[in-house]
UniProtKB/TrEMBL annotation:
The keyword Transferase applies. Its EC number is 2.5.1.90. Belongs to the FPP/GGPP synthase family. This is Octaprenyl diphosphate synthase. Its cofactor is Mg(2+). It catalyses: 5 isopentenyl diphosphate + (2E,6E)-farnesyl diphosphate = all-trans-octaprenyl diphosphate + 5 diphosphate. Keywords: Magnesium, Metal-binding, Transferase. It comes from the Bacteria. It is an enzyme of class 2 (transferase). GO terms for biological process: isoprenoid biosynthetic process. Supplies octaprenyl diphosphate, the precursor for the side chain of the isoprenoid quinones ubiquinone and menaquinone.
Length: 322
């Protein structure tokens, strides 16, 4: 089963998620509608809501509340994208201009706030304090992750430990929350909820590791963003951290300077350094380990086509090229 096959498996549910998203985005403020529709409609994998839907189905969901939950996760993700692009000064995402490049930073931040607050209105409609608790904690940690990433920026001495703390909070946390609330919605027993939580955490970590590697091995058209953006923003991601530890004196000096100055001018040389030191292979190996842990967590679920789809999504997270 491929990524597209997984989407086809729950195609009707995903259509409902899209309907919920557009219905809940509606505002009588024209600019809010324009910016929100632009970012939601700009493509993307929609992996997070897909994971929520399939996780709920794997846990035995018999109603449609999981589509609302999936839309909530996508809203929070969208809000973070709007804010991230402003903080990072990004101009390209998913192969097109970012919202802040089109409407300006002020509109992007404010509409991001709107989408974020709307997600909490939607949580209330689910009528579960447990879900409110999980999601409020998750969004708080995501915000902390953004601040931690800001603190790590331009610091070539950032450690692997600090890096993993950032990607857990920034990325894996939302995957984890999504799969956990899928279990909560289906009134799954604690051991199933724990398993689904672990699945989301490891899946999200694998996904981000691959994302950071792709910044040094993909091409702009396939990736949908400018290559070397992380370097230009002074972000010490794992491939860079590994190359700093294992490179030659000349390579280390070049990488340190580029991180400190937030410059991608030496991207070709740094990409060569990352490849020659094994930085990409190391990152890929850790991503595969995380995907394997995600798959192991599924062992307690009853066999079904949805369980198999979750396995396939873990494979997709590490094998993708975009």
């Amino acid at each position: 089963m491929s990524f597209e096959s997984a989407k086809q498996l729950v195609a009707a549910d995903l259509q409902e998620v899209d309907r919920v998203i557009r219905n809940r985005l509606a505002s009588d403020v024209v600019l809010v509608n324009q910016v929100a529709e632009y970012i939601i409609g700009s493509g993307g994998k929609r992996l997070r809501p897909l994971v929520v839907v399939i996780a709920a189905k794997a846990c035995g969901s018999t109603d449609q509340r999981h589509t609302e939950a999936a839309a909530i996760i996508e809203f929070i993700h969208t809000a973070t994208l709007l804010h991230d692009d402003v903080v990072d000064g990004s101009s390209l995402r998913r192969g097109q201009d970012t919202a802040n490049a089109v409407w300006g930073n002020e509109a992007s931040v404010l509409v991001g706030d709107y989408v974020y607050s709307r997600s909490f209105e939607m949580m209330v409609s689910l009528g579960s304090m447990r879900i409110m608790d999980v999601m409020s904690r998750a969004t708080n940690r995501i915000a902390e992750g953004e601040v931690l990433q800001l603190m790590n920026a331009h610091d070539p001495d950032c450690t692997e430990e600090r890096y993993f703390e950032v990607i857990y909070r920034k990325t894996a946390q939302l995957f984890e929350a999504g799969t956990q609330i899928a279990a909560i919605l289906t009134n799954s027993p604690p051991y199933i909820e724990e398993a689904m939580t672990k699945y989301g955490r490891h899946l999200g970590t694998a996904f981000q590791l691959v994302d950071d590697a792709l910044d040094y091995r993909a091409d702009r058209d396939t990736l949908g963003k400018n290559l070397g953006d992380d370097l230009a923003e002074g972000k010490p991601t794992l491939p860079l951290i590994y190359a700093l530890k294992h490179g030659t004196d000349e390579q280390r000096a070049l990488i340190r300077t580029s991180i400190e100055n937030g410059s991608a001018e030496a991207l070709p040389q740094i990409t060569t350094a990352i490849e020659s030191t094994g930085g990409l292979a190391y990152t890929a190996r850790l991503a595969r380990q995380e995907a394997s842990l995600a798959i192991e967590a599924l062992a307690v679920l009853p066999d079904s086509e949805y369980k198999q789809a979750l396995r396939e999504l873990a494979d997709f997270a590490v094998e993708r090229t975009y």
